Amino acid sequence: MDTVTRSADAPSFEDYAASSWPSLYRYAYLLAGNHADAEDIAQQTLLKAYRSWSRVERSDSPAAYLRRILTNTYLSQRRPKGRRLELLTDAPPETRHVAVGGPEERMALWPHVRSLPPRQRAVIVLRYYEDLSEQEIADVLGCSRGNVKSTAHHALKSLRAALGADASDGRES
Amino acid sequence: MPVDIEETLGRELREVADGLHVPAMPRLPEEPPRPARRRAPLLAAAAVVLVAAGAVGVATLPDGRDTRPAQPSPSPSPSPPESVAPIPRSAPTLPHVLDRKLYVDGEQVPWTWWTVRPAGDAWIAWREDFTWWWGRGAEVNELPNGEDVTPVLSPNGRYVAVVRAEGREGMLIVIDTETADTVGGTPLSIGAQKWGYPAYVVAVLDDGRVLARRGDSQLLWVPGTGGRTVDLFDTAPGQVVLGASSAGLVVTDGDGGQPYLAEVSDAGELTRIGELPRHDDLVVSPGGTWVAWTPIGTTGGDVTSIPSLEVRGLDGTEPATLTAPDGWEFTLRTWVWEDDTHLVSTVWSTERRADRMARCSPRTGRCVLVRDD
To answer: What is the predicted ipTM?
Structure first.
């Protein structure tokens, strides 16, 4: 692969991608909820960043730029077959399902976060994992702050309802 | 015991993320990176009534920036003979809307959209909720909006202008898309409504000058001159400015008269620099090399798609016809010059009840569907 740099001080794409991969993957997993889709989304994000590296590098915050690419990739739910990268590994493909009864399944809210509609989940992850402000989330999603507020409101309402249902189930059992 | 849902969310999301086994980063493809986009000439003309590029001129904004417009390419960039070069079937490089989805740099921008008009590195788009947005790349910014007010982008994509109604006053807002700043800092009054109709922007030139219409007045505003405007009703009687293109202003000699290309001076004087065909819709390629148009009477009324477009070189090349791929028709006012070699457009198939993107070569008169990826 060609090395893409703008100046001696600027990191190459390869360096930047290597250092960003873990955080991209974690963020992608929180959005997608499974390893296979997380890998797919994170890979596509790096590919898109690679193809527009000069623009990414010039941006005020390459990390924010990549976060926006990743979020839009996730929300678009449009993963062109022709652009998919194959992960070159000897490991067998991972299941899309988290083992039932694992630590994640025992959490109070995470299982319900994974059930939220994509846009609501994105707002929740951006707000409570990435610690972004409403305006920053609006910038990522390309919408107004009001839209972020209402989306977050609906998401939290759903989560509270789910928690309430869990509590009821617990009492009944 | 009540759960602090926000605290719990933050904690659980961090626990999930921290507990992940992160796989090795995949190898990336052996392909050259996409080069940085060049500014005006290579990319995009605007759409709808041509509104592609701007008149030639130099102005200095209040902050002293040089706003000389990008010079049009004197000729198309060297390329293999079109008679043998295949038309690329790759996805358009320009922002485009397909099936109400807006794609910029290969990414889908959230929300659903009616239309997008690209120019240079910038674009303006109309969202499903009837709000207007502008962007550079995938960055999205909302435009100050009013009902029935349509923003206009300069042919080089540097400026976007819109008139916002405040009571009976029309307030002109010009945004520099490179800095996202409002030129002059604040909206500028360009006068009260005339006959009950607010002013609206007709054209923005590459140097930030704006032509707005209010009643029968055509007001030219020049950056750095405060609120002063020149009325072309006085300086160019009977001439009607339709829009700006990379080759100059598109003007008609009277309503429905013969169209022509013109330059405008800061004093509002028009200088004829070229002839144009009579048209319903017309777009000029970003380097000012080609013009594509629909003949008079073909794209009015309830027409939503047409089978062909006319095209010719602005240097006097004989006209040719671009026919949409077999079974498809050009969706009205979605055609735009991708560069000075190809035109792209949404096409519609009544039989398939589907939209696709097509790319056309004016040299060969051929159009192909682009890959649906």
So the answer is: 0.81
